[in-house]
Amino acid sequence: MNHLPPILKASHLNTGYFAGKQTQCISENVNIKLHQGKLIALIGVNGAGKSTLIRTLSGLQPAISGEILLQQQSLFDYTALDIAREISLVLTEKITFSQATVFDLVALGRQPYTNWMDQLQAEDINAINQALQLTETEELKHKKINELSDGQLQKALIAKALAQDTALILLDEPTSHLDLSYQVTLLKLMQKLAHIQNKSILYSTHDIDSAIQMADEIIIMLKNKTIQDTPCNLIEQGIFDDLFHHADLYFDKQKGKFVIK
Question: Who's near 112: CB < 8 A, 6+ residues apart?
Fold first, then answer.
């Protein structure tokens, strides 16, 4: 039982988009808590609104309604700079400055702390080097971004998030397009950062089997609600049984994974 207050808490949150006077609601009644020292997987069927939720929790887009508390204060009262000092965000969008080096990319994580000329001070250099060391990307720091594999790029983006020195890291499908070995490496890295560096890490994924094995908690997005618990409790409650409705697919409680008939 975690007795400390959550870093982030969302209550009765509705997410989606505004188009003029119209609103398009993607997910409804989201209630979640993100605590320090936890690796939390966010899962749901296609179209459940995982990416939209992550962008809303990060302040990148407004909520339709509901409440988000960041460090026990309303997220909507924070400035963009204040949020950047509390939340690191890793998206799957293509990087446009591909001729920059990995060091340059990781250094961008220090922007919330540098002066108006973006000059790196000694503490910034130390934070960058520590992030490279923790993610085991030191040997890549002089490589250009367009020379990296997908797995190396994801590790560099996590290094950037670490250099940002925030309590909460949000990642949108960080393991997509990676081969199995890099998926495992990345998940192990995120698990280590949560447990050893005491970060709160929320990542969205389609890989439910690995989430059950690696995550401390799983948030499942259903049509009108969210369910958050440990993988073991979710299995015992039979939550995964009803996640997908397919005649040739079922969840095997003994194996803790989905099985094709």
Answer: 81, 84, 85, 164
Banded model confidence at residue 222, pLDDT cuts 50, 70, 90: confident
Going by pLDDT thresholds of 50, 70 and 90, the confidence category of residue 260 is confident
pTM attached to this predicted model:
0.93
Q: What is the pLDDT of residue 104?
A: 94
| Cα–Cα dist 64/113, whole Å | 31
- d(CA 23, CA 19) in angstroms, rounded, equals 6
The phi and psi torsions of 205 (rounded to 5 degrees) equal -160, 155
Token representation of residue 246: 């397919």
